[in-house]
Design goal:
157 residues, mainly alpha, 4 helices, 4% strand
């Protein structure tokens, strides 16, 4: 340990200085920061102006290469809602379509069920009738299917 007192030093009252170590008098130069911010603002404005010119160019190019609608649709007027070509998806409120696909499916299922459960003559003169599927399955289970003749075998040469 040193026996010297810490209070010893230059008598002038200045902070002690080492000749090998130096420090900056000012840490930040405000004019440099403002210069960079100004350059950044100019770059943002220039990019926005370039984007506007590119947008105008592409809109004009698209408008010039766009084909006019067919006369049949043009006659309907600008307020007419264009209907997409077939097949159209359900549930979007196009004319002639159900607004609810689930309701459409329920109607279809009910119609199929009713068609499979009704009695009806298909050809009364030939004796062909439509009967419910469950009754037809019972008849086939009781009597079996009629025998079918085997197709004639091909002759090998």
């Amino acid at each position: 340990m040193s026996t010297e007192s810490h209070n010893t030093g230059p008598v002038t009252g200045d902070a002690p200085r080492n000749t090998d170590v130096s420090f900056e008098e000012r840490d930040v130069q405000v004019s440099t920061i403002y210069g960079y911010l100004f350059a950044l603002a100019l770059a943002v404005v220039a990019a926005a102006v370039i984007c506007v010119f590119i947008l105008r160019f592409t809109l004009n190019f698209a408008a010039s290469s766009d084909t006019a609608p067919p006369p049949s649709r043009a006659a309907l007027g600008p307020n007419h809602r264009d209907i997409p070509p077939e097949p159209q998806l359900q549930g979007f409120g196009f004319p002639g379509q159900e607004a609810d696909p689930q309701a459409d499916l329920r109607k279809k299922t009910q119609a199929d069920t009713e068609a499979n459960e009704k009695f009806e003559w298909i050809d009364k003169n030939a004796g062909v009738a439509q009967i419910p599927v469950e009754d037809a399955m019972k008849i086939i289970a009781d009597k079996g299917l009629p025998a079918v003749a085997a197709p004639p075998a091909e002759k090998k040469k």
